[in-house]
Amino acid sequence: MSGGTSTAGPAGDGRRLLFVHAHPDDESSKGAATAARYVDDGARVTLVTCTDGAAGDVLNASYDPTHLEAVGMAQVRREELAAAVAAIGFHATYDLGFADSGWHEDAAAVPDGTFARTDLDAAAAALADVLRAERPHVVVTYGEDGGYPHPDHVMTHLVTVRAVELVAADWQVAKLYAASTFLHERVVALHEALVAAGRESPFADWLDGGRMRPRTPHARIRCADTFARRDAALRAHASQVDPDGLWFAVPRDVERAVYPYEAYELLWSLVATDVPEDDLFAGLDVAAWDAAQTPRSSR
């Protein structure tokens, strides 16, 4: 595991939020505006990236490959991640350093030695070290399907759940969430707004035939004020994100008007809360939670 890198001073109000993502760029496409909002609100917000992203392809047709050819994909992804982290404002970042598994529809094709082929407990132990160091009240990762079936995303879910279990004797995470980027209700809201404005919608095929499953999120976090920080983070991943592509297909004024949120599934909670929530810390008294954990750290 690579060590944590501090990118800002400690947060002031005691709340601690930690995101666990599979690759460089996932922190920008899944929950970036939420992370930036909580940074601005005074919480300590930490990022863990599980893999180096080295198996990624260039996904931006306008990207100039000159630098990539000189330094290689892993270094490019590292530099892009640093720029995205600065845009969002994470207080600390950790790189677990596992090898990117690459996209494989057949799980049997995942190469040996990559993240998705790593022993689960060994990978989870690396994340558990971060949890002990950061003592997050709330952790955000992916659902058990990975959000989409990339083997590293599925592994990230498994590793996060196992790490929370491994660290429980030292620190108990209060709430665990899965990020939902293209939730059905969001896609419908954006699609209908574009059509009403006479614009072309990139989501028509997504909604055709009811292939997307309607699902009400457990939490909607209002974060329209930090959409610009999310956009800056996305653009920082120049090898991966086309500035004229899907991520920017909806004018931000339209998005702010019809869906000013990022949505989450509550995987489990050790505090009582009512859904849908409007705060990832809903139901949680962090001072009382910290006080209750103190005996654990002295065992």
Mean pLDDT: 92
Give the helix tally.
Answer: 11
Q: Which descriptor suits the 3D outline?
A: globular
CATH T-level topology: Rossmann fold
What share of the residues does DSSP label as strand, in percent? 15-25%
H/E element sequence: EEHHEHHEHEHEHHEHHEH
Tell me the name of the CATH class: Alpha Beta
For the largest sheet, list the strands in their spatial order: 1-4-3-2-5-6-8-7
Which value, in Å, is the CA radius of gyration?
A: 19 Å
Beta-strand segment tally: 8
At the fourth level of CATH, the homologous superfamily is LmbE-like
Query: What CATH architecture do you see?
Result: 3-Layer(aba) Sandwich
Overall description:
The model has no long low-confidence stretch (mean pLDDT 92). The protein has a single domain, classed as 3-Layer(aba) Sandwich (Rossmann fold). β5, α6 (151-166) and β6 (175-180) form a beta-alpha-beta unit. 43% of the residues are buried. It is built from 11 helices and 8 strands. It has an 8-stranded mixed beta sheet with strand order 1-4-3-2-5-6-8-7, sandwiched between helices. It is 38% helix and 15% strand. The protein is an alpha/beta fold and 299 residues long. It is globular and about 55 Å long.
